[in-house]
Every structure is written in structure tokens, then in C-alpha cells.
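Q&A log
Question type: sequence-to-structure
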Amino acid sequence: MTTTIARLPRDGVVARPRVPVDAVMLEQRAAELSKRSIKTSTKLAGIDIAIRCTDLTTLEGKDSVGRVRSLCAKAIRPRPGWDDIPSVAAVCVYPNLVAVAKEALAGSGVKVASVATAFPSGLVDLDVKLADTAQAIAAGADEIDMVIDRGAFLAGHEEAVFDEIAAIKNLCGSVRLKVILETGELGSYEAMRRASDLALEAGADFIKSSTGKVGTNATYPTALVMCEAIRDFYRRTKERRGLKLAGGIRTTKQALTYLVIVNETLGQAWLQPELFRLGASSLLDDLLMQMEKERTGHYAAADYIPKD
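Response status: OK
Response body:
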């Protein structure tokens, strides 16, 4: 017997049954996908996609105007002198630095993403979350990365979590909304799946794994269970929603494995910045070094990789 998401019925919205998740099978499938062999030409194409889909991120207490401008320069031209290296998808900053990033990225096509809703905890009242989001949008944010109240979700107040996401999405309008589930705090794959389903139904344009501020961030099984939620949502509604993986993604091997998981579960249509992102601060350097290795047979010295 199934139970439904605990929230009030809404016009045009059908409450979905909770989806059981076989943890053993999920982890086995994720492990199998992580072992896929990737040929050189495919690896180069994968690195190119990973760069295009990167949200280059700085979310530290010591962030400054200079730091953000430097990061934006790197986002536009990750490797000066290599004109075929694409720009990244977005630069992600705190709301008070959105205007700085917007000015630095003007005309580049690189989006400005802003965390909001009391990142990373989400533990403030809705009116504060709305004000936080409104500040970022007013400053020019193209995308909002909001966090859910994990305490409320785990306590069974799923209707309240749904309503907060819906309220933030209503405020965002055409501004892309990424909903951070903080999967490392949810406790089980079934909770991750339930949170994914809830966020998608509430209007999330993307579901995002992590803030990067807790001990457990993105993992291969986590990515797989979120992809399955997006796949099933698409099958029900014919609406494509995106996936953002973040936290602890530092190597090209990790990035390429996530591309394999997305491709195998959702298909090639999702391997583009409009539907897939990798949130990272140090991944780009490794992608550039691995690209040079595949092209020339040797690694670039660290000094040749621009520092942000």
C-alpha cells in the first residue's frame, strides 16, 4: 500500500505515490556505471561538456569583490590562448556579490547564479527567504539556488516545504530556480527520492544535490536516484527539468562518471547547460589539465592554469 506526499491538493497537481528505492540495486547500478571505459575522443568531448556545464562557485566567508571578478574572468576564458575552450555555464556567488559578477560577466553569455533562502541552512522564516531571493534577483541574478528546510522535511512537514519552494518559484518567475535538497542530511535514498519528487512538483527548474557545506555531498547513487526522479517526472508531464550536482566534485573522472549516469538515465538531451550543471570550485583546473593531457600527451604545469 502506498502513501502520498503530505500536502494539500492543488489545482492541476496530482499527488504522487511515494516511490520505493532498492538501495542495493541502486548502489550496484551506480557502481557499474562508474566503471565504464571512456575512449580518448569521447573523453575529450566529455571534458568539453563538463566545462560548459560547470557552475564555477565561490561561497566562502572571505569572498571579496576582487575574488569574484577574478573568478568571472576565469569563467569566460578558462585557458587563455586556447580559443576553443568554452566558457562555463555560470558563476555562483552570495547575493551581495551578484552585481559585481553581473558587471564582470556582461556580454559573455555566462550566467550569474546566486544562493539564497538563508544558504546553507535554510532555517529562517519564509518572509526572510523571499527577501533574500528578491535581493539577488534585483541585483541581476539569472539563477537562484535555494535550500530547503531539511528539518521540516524530515519531521514530515512536506506540505510546508512544497509551499516554500512554490512561493520562491513564483517570485523567481523566469529566473531559473535550482532547489538544493542537501541529500547528505536526508538519511536514505527513499527520502532523497521523495524530496526530489516534491521539489519537481513544486516548480523547481533544477534539483540540486548539495550545498557543499556538509560532510556528505554528491555521490554516484545520489545522482542516480535524482536522475530517476527527473526521468519519471518527464514521463508523466513531458516537461524536462534539470539536475545540478555539487559538493566534493574535484576530478575529471568524477565529472565524466556523472555524465555517464545522466546520459544512461536521462539521455543526451540532458547533457547541456540548460539541463545539467556541476557545481564546483576546483574541478575546472583538473578538467583543463586532463584536456591538455589528452591533446598533447603530457600534463600542463600547474602554473599554466589560470588561478582565480
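Response note: The two ends are 53 Å apart (CA to CA).
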